[in-house]
Design brief:
The longest helix has 35 residues, at 79-113. 76% of the residues lie in helices and 0% in strands. The protein folds into 2 domains: 19-57; 68-159. The chain starts with a helix and ends with a helix. The chain contains 7 helices and no strands.
Length: 161
């Protein structure tokens, strides 16, 4: 009978192999502690990322303190230099407007043909080229009006507000 008890008793040398063993946990207490630590660490990371995102979204303060005339003096630009740069920005704007219209027309054509991947690619190209058009148009406008401005002020001026 004692032999029967000895054969039915649990062997203490080998740990049980179950689902937790597959996950690398042989002791439930250790597993719970490591899980709690990883959750608290990820919570700290999320809090740090949220703080960085919140700071990124804050409205930037206008750090420019100089006027257009002061900037021209600081850069030692003559009236001829300004006229040349305004002409360069205007020509660049017009060239990229042509490229933008081509990219947009190709996007419409791709949509009409059912080529959605091509249409998306052309949309991305159009957004990129549109940003270049906006940048160059804003710089030409600033030189023409002899006024430094933000993008919001430029858009308001274009819309006549």
């Amino acid at each position: 009978m004692e032999d029967l008890k000895n054969s039915n008793s649990k062997k203490k040398g080998k740990p049980k192999k179950g689902v937790l063993w597959l996950l690398g946990v042989t002791n439930i207490k250790e597993g719970l502690e490591s899980t709690a630590e990883s959750i608290s660490e990820s919570g700290g990371r999320v809090k740090k990322l949220f703080g960085m995102y919140k700071n990124w979204l804050k409205k930037p303060e206008n750090t420019r303190t100089e006027s257009f005339e002061e900037a021209v003096r600081r850069l030692r630009l003559s009236k001829d230099d300004l006229a040349k740069r305004q002409r360069e920005y205007t020509i660049t704007t017009l060239a990229f407007v042509v490229a933008l219209s081509f990219a947009l027309s190709m996007m419409v054509f791709a949509l009409a043909q059912g080529q959605f991947a091509s249409a998306f690619t052309n949309l991305c190209i159009s957004l990129f080229v549109g940003a270049i058009v906006f940048y160059n148009a804003m710089r030409a406008w600033q030189i023409k009006n002899r006024k430094l401005c933000t993008a919001r002020e430029f858009i308001s001026a274009l819309l006549g507000k």
